[in-house]
Amino acid sequence: MNVLACDGIDPKAVQVIRDAGHTVVEAKGLAAPDLIIALKGVHGLLVRSATKVTAEVLAATSDLKVVVRAGTGLDNVDRAAAEARGVAVRNTPNANSISVAEITFGMLLSLERHLAPAAADLKAGRWEKTKYAGREIAGRTLGVIGFGRIGREVATRARAFGMDVIAFDPLVKTAPAGFDWVRIADRDTVLAQADVITLHVPLTDETRHSLSTREFGLVKKDAVLINASRGGVVDEAALHAALTGGQLRAAATDVFEKEPAPADHPLIGLPNVLPLPHLGASTREAQARAGIDAAAALLEVLGSAR
Predict the structure, then answer these.
(1) pLDDT, mean of residues 43-57
(2) Residue 230 is among the residues annotated as catalytic for this protein
């Protein structure tokens, strides 16, 4: 069978599929109508986050049997349209957890210790030791919104840093086994009590703009926000207002509602914002795991051609 691999799938994963007897064509930067043309005669599609598998794209395919997203989120795949056409949709939920948890703390430490601006000043010849006095994270309360795989990896690392952890997840009513030291609470309580709020939820109709003006009104004025989930979870206009109006001290975001974010995006220019270009899963290890897991998921549907 024919497989189209988009967005730079790990080469080892591509070889696994070829070793199973399938033909793999690799491509990057495909959008409709080019993606529609490329999908003619294709039975399996592998994507990361860049390729948008829309209802229009799916409606134009006749041979497609499975779409696999090498990563956690599925917001770039129209699952309802796929299911209506009998196209299976899979992802790799375990591949990125460690990398995203690590970048969460990378952003938090960089934000609280002013690492990026201090390094920029030093490169420009300015030794600003006193200007960048920061804050420790030990002893502070981390509020985790979304307590699935990534949220639990974040909580584990927070414990090592000496932080208290409070978490909300609509699917988690009590602390999971091994996490009895985490307080499970309702979302408003987490927002009100946390010194650091970190988001680890998928983008769905229920979570879109789930942090907006009302929610920012609940947080401590000295709190900081870390978003390594999806940009659309946060109402960016409300976040901007909270940051400029003194309702929220600072924020670090690896994601934006529209990506790539334009250079003149209102949040990027704020001095109390650390912006990143969606680097959460961009590690060699995560991409290798995502690729191998994606190949396995695809072969579960297509089987071996040998």
Answers:
(1) 94
(2) yes
Catalytic residue (one of 79, 183, 209, 278): 278
**CATH number attached to the domain at 97-275:** 3.40.50.720
Question: Is 278 annotated as catalytic?
Answer: yes
- Residue ranges, comma separated, of all CATH 3.40.50.720 domains in the chain are 2-95+284-302, 97-275
% of the chain at pLDDT higher than 70: 100
Residue 114: which of 280, 277, 272 has the closest Cα? 272
Q: What confidence score (pLDDT) does residue 270 get?
A: 97
Q: What is the pLDDT of residues 56-99, one digit of tens each?
A: 999 999 999 999 999 887 889 999 999 999 999 999 988 999 99
Residue 306 predicted with pLDDT over 90: no
Percentage above 90 pLDDT, the chain? 93
User: In Å, how far from its chain's centre is CA 281?
Assistant: 7
pLDDT of residue 22: 97
Q: Which of 230, 236, 249, 289 is catalytic?
A: 230
* Angle 271-272-277 from CA coordinates, rounded to 5°: 85
Q: What architecture is the 2-95+284-302 domain classified under in CATH? A: 3-Layer(aba) Sandwich (3.40)
Active site residue 90: no
- The predicted-structure confidence for 23-39, as pLDDT tens digits, reads as follows 999 999 898 899 999 99
| Vertex 143: Cα angle to 140 and 144 (nearest 5) | 135
Structure tokens at 128: 């600003």
* Active-site residue identified among 83, 128, 259, 300: 259
